[in-house]
Amino acid sequence: MEIMLFHSALGLRPAVHDAAERLRGAGHSVRVPDLFEGQTAETMDEGLAIKDKAGADELLRRAVAAAAPHSDRGLVYAGFSLGGSIAQNLALGDEKARGLLLLHGTSDIADGAAVDDLPVQLHVADPDMFESHDWLTAWYLGMRRAGADVEIFRYPGVGHLYTDPASEDYDEDAAERTWQIALAFLEDIAAGEA
After folding, report:
1. CA nearest 7: which of 161, 31, 64, 16?
2. pLDDT per residue as tens digits for the range 106-121
3. Tens of pLDDT, residues 26-41
4. CATH code at 57?
5. Taken in order 158, 161, 163, 168, is the CA torsion positive or negative?
6. Taking CA 166 as the corner, what is the angle to CA 158 and CA 168, rounded to the nearest 5 degrees?
7. Closest C-alpha to 54, from 88, 80, 63, 103
8. Domain encompassing residue 168
9. What single DSSP character describes residue 167?
């Protein structure tokens, strides 16, 4: 199965490559586009400044350009935080999308978005500085209205980027639980295609 994995606002750092290797180890083909064109950040504030300088439209254009050559085969879109929001936008706009794996981030749902039982899994800190409970409730209802088959997994007491070993938010136990659940989710999608 082919996965398009998008990085967080910290850029394409070793943690993203490590996650891609974990996914490859489970038998998946993984692409990790660099939406920041080589720039990385040490802090979320620095990363958000890079994001803002590039602009949301340009980042989405880069993501579409990275995914387009592979989307005819049907992709699972995945991403960390900012990358999750980008992955969501691409998956909801790609009628051949096979799944959506969100780690730490979601996005607004475009009016008229419609999918046919798209499997979606979200892993998020509880509470999360960027994903409030009210937001997640509205997001879940909106995704269900769009036709997605959504699961949300919340991890109490961890920080926003808790799966990133280089982040101060890192929580090894929560990260391992996340990966076990996410890999089973991807295996289920792959099994459904067999």
Report:
1. 16
2. 999 988 899 999 999 9
3. 999 999 999 999 999 9
4. 3.40.50.1820
5. negative
6. 40
7. 63
8. 2-193
9. S
